[in-house]
Amino acid sequence: MQRNAAAADTAAILLALIAGCIAAAQVGKVPPAIEAIRAELSMSLVQIAWVASAISAATAALGIAVALTMARRGAHTGLLNGLILLTLGSVGGAEASSGNLLLVSRILEGTGFVLVVVSAPSLIASTLAHTPQRRRLWLTLWSCYMPVGIALTMGLAPLILEAGGWRSLWWWNAGLLAVCSAVAFSYRNRLRDATRAAAGPTAPPPSWRALRQPGSWLMGISFGAFAAIWFVIATWLPSFAVEYMGYTARGATWLTALAVVGNIAGNLGAGFLAAAGLPRWAVIAGVQVMLGALGWLVFSADADPLLRSLAAIVACAGAGALPATVMAGVPIHARNPQQILVANGILFQCANLGSLAGPPAVAAAVTALGGWNGGRWLIPAIAMLGVLAAVALRGVERRIADADSVTGAGFAGADAGASQ
Fold first, then answer.
1. Any coiled-coil ranges, and where (predicted)?
2. pLDDT tens-digit map of 251-310
3. Domain range enclosing 68
4. Fewest C-beta atoms under 10 Å: which of 155, 226, 276, 281?
């Protein structure tokens, strides 16, 4: 019986991971298809920009609200409904006859994306509520969902686009989402039972109390600062590399893709840092310092192009340690699985606010200060905000560890001690 239960738990966790990767693929499917979509639907640059950013905008607007709702209805419900909405959105996009209809379909996809990325890590944490080491490992793997999903889609997209056009790319994704939805539906009872078992026999406090946990907000601020700088590099590096570093358009694209894929190595490296006993706040602060310094160097217009290229790759790769570290820290600040849902909502809403605000903020600074050598100073300023949040997190987690060592309370178990 125990072996069967463990197998069912592993299957449910793998389902959550795969769902996250396929959800992330919906972010990555737009950039390779932009020119084809614009040509067929006669869309303006503003319209296509909204199509590309609709998912980030939805997460920035709905993360906490979705988390509070799913805390009442269950993370398993959020995962299943999110996959269904993503499927419907991809089908709607494949059949869109105008730019406005395509944008509506992307809003639908964005809502589904929020549901999946808030619910999936909560399901993983709930399923492994009583095995902190395994939970930390699986949450580290979960942190790779975005670069893995985007990289796989961008790698396969040229082949699908060449064979059948952008609508085929949408249909391929709709098929994957439909299959994942069907599997999730078949596992719905196991997913529900895992959440209930982790909650325990007593009624949990209202989920809105998680909004008063300072640690979740401090990690969210750090996550937002990271996302702002990371997306500044991913957004502006291609054009900057062509204009200032001597790259061709294709070479600049490959440089950016290499930097993005390198993020996966950083995600996985976070597990080794945790196993080595490095405090969470120190990892977060260290990543912010590295991002601030290397991001500043990347956009130094008079620096050596090779040095700037290496800085971009190292910055994006090393930065991957932050999402994994932050997500593994969520159970430290949660008193029950419902509060994990809300904490995840805070993290993802802050991260997407950063990713939305970062690139235009740096662009505005570059314009106002007369070029990149002036505007680049905003990057270390954003990083400093993340460092300050990390230092404040140190004190919060020390107080939690001290309190839990006395009372035995908390959801995190043995993880709490590693945060100091």
1. none
2. 776 787 778 777 777 777 777 777 777 888 899 999 999 999 999 998 887 888 889 889
3. 2-198
4. 276
